[in-house]
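Table 4 source record.
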Amino acid sequence: MGIGQRVKRRVISTTTRRLLDLATRASDKNLLRLTVAFQRLLPKIPFYQNGLAAIRQMFEEGHQGIGAVRRILTEPSRKTVACLVDNMILGSFVEGYRRRYRFWEQHGIAPPAAVLFSPTMRCNLACEGCYAARYSRDVEMDRATVDRIIAESQEIGINVFTVLGGEPFLWPHLPEVFEDHPGAAFQVFTNGSLLDEAMIKRLARAGNVLVCLGLEGRRRSTERRRGRGSFDRALALMDLMRRERMLIAYSITVTRQNVDEVTDPEFVRLMLEQGAHLGWYFHYQPTGHCPQMESLPTPEQRARMRQRLRKARRELPILIVDFLNDGALTEGCMSAGRRYIHINHRGDVEPCIFVHFATDNIHKKSLAECLCSDFFRELRRHQPFNPNHLRPCMILDNPQFLRRAVAQCKAQPTHPDADAVLTRLAPEIDDYAQRYAALTAAGDS
């Protein structure tokens, strides 16, 4: 980056921070006016502009999403907010978009905005139904590979990274990666068992990390799957993070057994009281350890979950991501590089964290070459898979596209039994897809 570019970036960064600082103290009426300034700052593409339109609608309707944004901009430390501005708003939405656009012009396929990677699949827990439990645990990424993934990603405009596993903090280099890449934004999903006060303080000093703590609901449900003391440990860590003025998030695997508990307004309020700014809700997928349809929320539960979490978003100042049900917000499936990809511990480049098939490996090809694979192009050719964005998923809602792409491109399963979704579970998946299709035939009700 030349001197002129650095000066321009500093001016934009300072202006953006001042606008956000003003936003935390402005009336909703003045906030409406500020969206015009951000509209000029962000690239003129439908996805961003539609997002701003949705924000303006929130202001007009008194939606509590505005309260969630205010909390995100005022409760964390100044360094955390600065990293949010520089690494997300500028690094990803503005500068990153320009680089991604150049990549599209060159290769005819747009790169994602985020890369998910799992440096290890080792874990100190043995949670029933874990999506990662069938991967081999005798291989890990080396530090040089992770640094190369980040460098190649940033070169083409990707500045947001999600770290998964296994348990990510079993990989010994993780804190150093956060510290050595201060210009990147990281989100890490963890069971929290290896975090202590010293590590929380270290992550807070880095400022560019969002820690997402895994829960299954309240104490009984969480301890049933994650072991004794896991619920209280997560709440204690939230307390530490709140004192260090970090961004705080929780993550839920939603099953048929806990769906009503974790979408209960009182549970969401409990997370809010603990300081959570963000809640991730991932539907159980029939992948990984002993995949079974019996753990998947029923179509009726899934529809009820959508309505309950939307209500919570309207009424409580916390951001909630309903991974499978938010297809209307993401314009359908985000996988295969449309919005993100996943790189597993062996370097296999998978279209989705739950789609355990690959044709390419980061150890044999550059990231750019992997993104341009025939496998990803075939999936992208059919996205968003369905005009009804309440049915975005290529595993559960539109399985015919996954089956066709795997067959045509000779994609290989990345662990034993990964192909169960294509073979022995296929009849049950087809039945589920048909039942949910009938339930959502009227559209977004």
